[in-house]
Amino acid sequence: MTKNGTGSFSLPFLVVVLAVAASPARAQQQLHYERPVEAAPQAEDIGAGYVVPVVQHYPARTQWREVTDVAVLAAALAVGTWLALRRRSRTGLVLLAIGCLAYFGFYRQGCVCPIGAIQNVTAALVYPQYAIPYVVVAIFLLPLVCAVLFGRIFCGGVCPLGAIQELVLLKPLRVPVRLDKTLGWLKWVYLGLAVWFVVRPAAKPDFIICRYDPFVGFFRFTGPLNILLLGAGLLVLAVFIGRPYCRFLCPYGGLLSLLSRISWRGVTVTPDKELDCGLCAEACPYGAIENLRATRPACLACARCFRHCPRHRVQTTGGQAPPATP
Question: How does 8-46 read in b/e, with b if 16+ C-beta sit within 10 Å?
Answer without folding.
Answer: eeeeeeeeeeeeeeeeeeeeeeeeeeeeeeeeeeeeeee
